[in-house]
Amino acid sequence: MNIKPKIKLVDNWRAKLKHAWSVRILAISGVMGVVFQAWPTWPLDIFNTLPDFITAWMHPIVIKLMPAALTGLAIWVSVIRQEKLNAGK
């Protein structure tokens, strides 16, 4: 038995993809992840450039966890209805 799923995109998928916040957040997360893997000292360098009142209560590992946090945020944002994108329905 050969079942072929039919995938059908919405009519204006390019416009929706271009303006969706989840795509923007995932792009930032991906770039941060690649940069942090390519230059492992950058998260610590970024942490050291922050003002003292921020570094007093924040641990340096928070900077390294930003790509993972942004990915989680993008997943959460993708389920939120975005009125401007869904106006064409």
Automatic annotation (TrEMBL):
InterPro entries reported for this sequence: DUF7940
Keywords: Membrane, Transmembrane, Transmembrane helix
Residue stretches spanning the membrane: 21-41, 61-80
Protein name: Uncharacterized protein
